[in-house]
């Protein structure tokens, strides 16, 4: 699929589809204003509130909920005072990944397992200077190119996730410029058991009820629907 690869004589990648789950693809679109809109649509702050920034919306959400909420799931309190806690307590999960039989089964090389899961790392690796601090790759443009070339693109978002909220994701999907954009924009959301979905001309957007950053674990049917939209 990649033009540079084809130009270099390599075989094109047989790309069937692109699936983005609870992701931030374009921070210019998925910004503080869309976060404030998310908080209002979710009923966490008043619909007529003048709040328009993410910081102010998060503070108002904390007041409304009465607790410091989990960054990945506002329905539960954040756990931040324990070893391996990053909103959730990942210590048991991290210890499992360090078991000798698990490391062997996953073919983990050298001390990569320790770097990711030992101590209180909880699966996170520190990249000096920031992992994507200077990233200027045009992700949205590549998704538009994929759609114009007949490659299906699907987004799914858990509606209780504040790390990558569904209103910002919906705005992102609506901002993509490709040949079928108008047809997709005109499509209506269809209600399914536990989620809503709309699609048109290869682009599908799924927003999932009672789910946060980990949709496949919490709402498997919605995740299966998202996959089927690409390969079904």
CA-based shape: globular
Main sheet makeup: 5 strands, mixed
Mean pLDDT: 91
Structural class: alpha/beta
Order of helices and strands: HEHHEEEEHHHHEHHEEEHH
Structural overview:
This protein has helices at about 5, 30-40, 55-65, 90-95, 100-105, 110-115, 140-150, 165-175, 180-185, 215-220, 220-230, and strands at about 15-20, 70, 75, 85, 90, 150-160, 190, 195-200, 205-210. The protein has about 230 residues and is α/β, with parallel strands linked by helices. A 5-stranded mixed β-sheet has the order 1-6-9-8-7, sandwiched between helices. Strands 2-3 form a two-stranded antiparallel ribbon. Helix 2 (about 30-40) runs parallel beside helix 3 and helix 2 (about 30-40) crosses helix 8 (about 165-175). The model has no long low-confidence stretch (mean pLDDT about 90).
Keywords:
two-stranded antiparallel ribbon, single chain, alpha/beta, about 230 residues
Structure, briefly:
Helix content is 38%, strand content 16%. It has 232 residues and is of the alpha/beta class.
Q: What is this structure's SSE topology?
A:
Elements: H1 3-7, E1 17-21, H2 32-41, H3 54-65, E2 69-70, E3 73-77, E4 85-86, E5 88-89, H4 91-97, H5 100-105, H6 112-117, H7 139-148, E6 152-158, H8 166-175, H9 181-186, E7 190-192, E8 195-200, E9 203-208, H10 215-218, H11 220-231
Helix pairs in contact: 2-3, 2-8
């Amino acid at each position: 699929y990649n033009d540079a690869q084809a130009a270099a004589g390599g075989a094109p990648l047989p790309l069937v589809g692109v699936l983005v789950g609870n992701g931030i693809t374009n921070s210019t679109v998925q910004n503080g204003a869309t976060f404030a809109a998310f908080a209002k649509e979710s009923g966490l702050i008043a619909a007529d509130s003048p709040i328009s920034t993410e910081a102010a919306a998060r503070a108002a959400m904390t007041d409304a909920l009465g607790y410091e909420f989990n960054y990945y799931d506002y329905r539960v309190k954040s756990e931040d005072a324990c070893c391996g806690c990053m909103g959730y307590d990942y210590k048991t999960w991290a210890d499992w990944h360090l078991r000798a039989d698990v490391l062997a089964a996953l073919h983990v090389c050298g001390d990569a397992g320790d770097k990711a899961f030992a101590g209180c790392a909880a699966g996170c690796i520190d990249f000096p200077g920031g992992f994507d601090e200077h990233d200027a790759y045009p992700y949205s443009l590549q998704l538009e190119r994929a759609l114009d070339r007949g490659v299906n693109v699907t987004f799914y978002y858990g509606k209780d996730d504040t790390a990558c909220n569904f209103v910002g994701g919906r705005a992102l999907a609506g901002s993509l410029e490709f040949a079928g954009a108008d047809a997709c924009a005109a499509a209506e959301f269809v209600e399914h058991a536990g989620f809503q979905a709309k699609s048109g001309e290869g682009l599908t957007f799924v927003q999932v009820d009672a789910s946060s950053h980990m949709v496949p674990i919490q709402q498997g049917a919605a995740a299966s629907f998202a996959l089927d939209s690409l390969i079904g």
